[in-house]
Amino acid sequence: MPDTDSPPALDAQGLTKRYGRNRRPALSDVNLTIPAGRVIGLVGPNGAGKSTLLHLACGLTEPTAGSLTVLGSRPAANASHLARVGFVAQNTPVYGSFTVAEHLKLGARMNPSWDPVLAERRISQVGLNPAQKAGQLSGGQRAQLALTIAAAKRPELLIFDEPAAALDPLARKGFLHNLMEFVLELGASAVLSSHLLGDVEQVCDYIIVLCDSRVQVAGDTRDLLAEHARLIVPRGEFDHPPTGAEVISIEHSGKHSGAIVRTATAPEALPYQAEPVTLEDLVLAYMTRAATVPTARAKAAARRAAQ
Questions:
Q1: Spatial distance between the Cα atoms of 37 and 217, rounded to a whole number of angstroms
Q2: What is the tally of structural domains in the chain?
Q3: DSSP 3-state of 7
Q4: CA–CA distance from 65 to each of 12, 225, 255 (Å)?
Q5: What one-character DSSP code corresponds to residue 43?
Q6: Residue 151 maps to which CATH number?
Q7: pLDDT one-digit tens code per residue, 208-220
Q8: Cα–Cα distance between 53 and 68 in angstroms, integer?
Q9: DSSP class of 224
Q10: What is the DSSP letter of 3?
Q11: What is the pTM of this model?
C-alpha cells in the first residue's frame, strides 16, 4: 500500500534529458509522481529511456531540463541521501577479482547504515561461498551478490535496471523471490526496469509504460487493468468511438475489429462485447500506439524535411 505520510519515491516534473551533438532526447517532458511503498514496474522497448530515468534517479547523470526528486530530495544530494538508495545496474556488476567476503567488507566500509547480519544471513541462504571470487560465480550467483549488497545498505528505495534479463528461468525466479523478501523486510519501495512482462506481473503493483522518451501510462496495476478492456466490434464501427472511451490500439480481422480502450465507465456498460485485458495486452497496446502515432518531434522533423 502507498505510504501517504512519506514523500514520493520519485517525482518528476518536465523531466528532460538530451544526449550528443544532435541533442537527441532520451526523455522528453516527463511528469510522474510515484508514491512511496510501491513495487514499480518500468517497462518499454529498448531505447525508450528506462535506463536514463533510473540513472537520473541515482544521480549518475543530470537532467537537461525539468526537475526530479527521489525520496523528497535531489538525487545523490549528499552521502546521507546516497545511503537511502540501493542500485543494481544492468548485468549486476561486481568486482571479478574480489571475493564474496571482500564485497561485504567494501559495502560495510562505504555505507554507514550497513547491516552485516542481514548481509551474511542472505549470503548463507543463497549458498555463496565467502572465499570465492566473484569472477568465478554464475550469473545467478552474481545477481544474488549484487542484490545482497544493495539491500544490506538498508535503503528506503531499491532500483533495479534489467537485473535478471540474462539469467536462466530458475535463477530469475530465485532473484525475484529474494527481491520481494528484501522489499518486505526493509519496508522499502522498489523500481524494477524489465522487458520481461512476466517478471513485472509477478512482483509489481504499480506500472509505468515508457516509449519514445515519454510516459505513455502510469498507475496502480489493478486500477489500470480495471479501466481498460478489449472491445469486439463490427469492422469500421469504431471510426467514431463512444463518448468516454479512448481507443489505445485497434486490430482488424475479417469483419470485426478488436480495440483496446480506456474508459471512465465500466467496460460492460458499453454497447459492445467487452473482454478483460492482461498486463501484456495493456503494455503492448500503449507501445503500439507510441510506435504508430507520430509524435510532435517526428511531425516537426517531417515539416523541416519538406521545406
A1: 19
A2: 2
A3: coil
A4: 11, 32, 48
A5: E
A6: 3.40.50.300
A7: 999 989 999 999 9
A8: 10
A9: H
A10: B
A11: 0.86
Taken in order 109, 191, 167, 90, is the CA torsion positive or negative? Answer: negative
Confidence grade of residue 93 (pLDDT, cut at 50, 70, 90): confident
pLDDT of residue 300: 45
* 192 and 232 co-located in one domain: no
Polymer length in residues for the chain: 307
Query: From the CB of residue 19, how many other CB atoms can be counted at a distance below 10 Å?
Result: 12
Tens-digit pLDDT profile for residues 159-191? 999 887 778 888 888 888 988 999 999 999 999
The amino acid at 250: I
Domain that holds residue 178: 10-211
28 near 213, Cβ under 8 Å? yes
Dist CA 145 CA 171 (whole Å): 13
Q: Residue 46: its pLDDT value, please?
A: 86
pLDDT, averaged across the chain: 87
The whole-angstrom separation of Cα 29 and Cα 215 is 9
All 3 cell numbers of residue 278?
A: 492482461
